[in-house]
Design goal:
The chain is an alpha/beta fold. It is about 30% helix and about 25% strand. It contains twelve helices and 16 strands. It has a six-stranded parallel β-sheet, sandwiched between helices. The radius of gyration is 19 Å and the shape is globular. The chain starts with 6 loop residues before the first strand and ends in a 5-residue tail after the last helix. The protein binds NADP nicotinamide-adenine-dinucleotide phosphate. NADP nicotinamide-adenine-dinucleotide phosphate binds next to helix 1, helix 4 and helix 12.
């Protein structure tokens, strides 16, 4: 897609951990130019470099460092807003921006499960963007809210998507989730070093419900979840970046062979690949032949952190097929996912 000039964008929650991932991911983006940052009253009025410490590798990008942070009210912000807003305030703030005509592409959990809000993974359910006119009618606003999934859900759903043609009956998923998924400062080091914490508040419910919504359809102007049983067990482990999901799947009408599953994963492509969206990985699912891969430290950040890596596809003696999936939780699981959503929306002329 050729643009006459870049599309200006802002970030709600731009001083936070996910906000910084947005800033980093948007550096040098061919379509989007970061011009606006919003945060709380604590940061408003300060340049970004004075409002927050940079928590990512390297230095704070110079252009972003000089942006004066605004309070999180619509008015002077650009039309396209990414949101990495704290969940305790995201509901009202994102709605206020949509009401004022902004397109809010959100990474926060608050609106994900609403029936008229797309929970979008462009390779899987681009048709869910058809909820936008319904949302506008229901809510009486000119803007829109579009969300991306939770960071472990996106790893699971991208790994499952190539297998949808075989028909799902049930999925069991056990996660090993990186500490970066808990934000900053996150889990105390004394709790996590050399340890596994078998509880992440609300995470199992999010994985179960979001997976059904993403793999479901839009029917009668509402998101209709797929009627497939999903059981998730979520664990925080002593890994910096990259969520790993050990997955077993039961299929509705007989199991495909291990080779059919591998082949489906290798061949899987979506609209972002067909349209060559700037942040689209060449292959959304990368099947790894090595018996000890994927591994978060070695694989999650490859290819700009945008694919999901899958390995160890084998027969499951309880369900039908089992495998291991791994993806970058703050890139494909957060900022990169939202930017890819906005790229698809730009391509579909949904940002005007
Ligand atoms: N961390 C992850 O890996 C991850 C992954 C997926 C999704 N998420 C979701 O992404 C969102 C952000 O997470 P995070 O880890 O980046 O959190 P964070 O580091 O605590 O950042 C929160 C952001 O919200 C702003 N904020 C807080 N209270 C506000 C208020 N009353 N009004 C306006 N702005 C306010 C903060 O501004 P100040 O700096 O001014 O306080 C900051 O910019 C959350 O909804 C989280 O669930 C996080």
């Amino acid at each position: 897609m050729a643009l006459n000039r870049p599309i200006e964008v802002g970030i709600l929650g731009g001083t936070g951990m996910v906000g910084q991932h947005f800033i980093s991911f948007l550096q040098g983006h061919p379509w989007f130019k970061l011009v606006w940052l919003g945060a709380s009253d604590r940061s408003a009025g300060k340049k970004l470099k004075d409002a927050t410490a940079w928590r990512l590798e390297g230095a704070m990008p110079c252009d972003a460092a000089e942006i004066v942070v605004s309070d999180s009210k619509p008015g002077h912000a650009p039309k396209l807003m990414f949101s990495a807003m704290d969940a305790s305030v995201a509901t009202e703030i994102e709605q206020a921006f949509a009401q004022a005509g902004h397109i809010v592409v959100s990474n926060s959990r608050n609106h994900r499960m609403e029936l008229d809000v797309p929970l979008l993974v462009p390779e899987i359910n681009p048709d869910h963007l058809s909820l936008i006119p319904v949302q506008r009618k229901n809510r009486g606003w000119k803007g829109a809210i579009v969300t991306n999934p939770n960071c472990s859900t996106i790893v699971l759903t991208l790994a499952l998507a190539p297998l949808a043609k075989f028909g799902f009956e049930a999925v069991m998923a056990a996660t090993m989730q990186a500490v970066s998924g808990a934000g900053y400062p996150g889990v105390p080091s004394i709790d996590i070093l050399g340890n596994v914490i078998p509880y992440i508040g609300g995470e199992e419910e999010k994985m179960q419900q979001e997976t059904q919504k993403i793999l479901g359809k839009v029917q009668d102007g509402k998101a209709a979840p797929l009627s497939m049983k999903v059981s998730a067990q979520c664990h925080r482990v002593s890994v910096a970046d990259g969520h790993t999901v050990a997955t077993s799947v039961k299929f509705a009408s007989g199991a495909p062979s291990v080779e059919e599953v591998r082949q489906a994963m290798r061949e899987f492509r979506g609209i972002p690949q067909q349209r060559e969206l700037p942040s689209a990985p060449a292959q959304p699912v990368i099947y790894m032949e090595e018996q000890d891969r994927p591994q978060p430290r070695r694989d999650a950040a490859r290819e700009n952190g945008m694919p999901v890596f899958v390995g160890r596809v084998r027969n499951c003696p309880v369900l039908d097929i089992k495998f291991v999936a791994c993806g970058h939780n703050t890139i494909r699981g957060a900022a990169g996912a939202a930017v890819l959503n906005a790229e698809l929306m730009a391509c579909e002329d949904l940002l005007s």
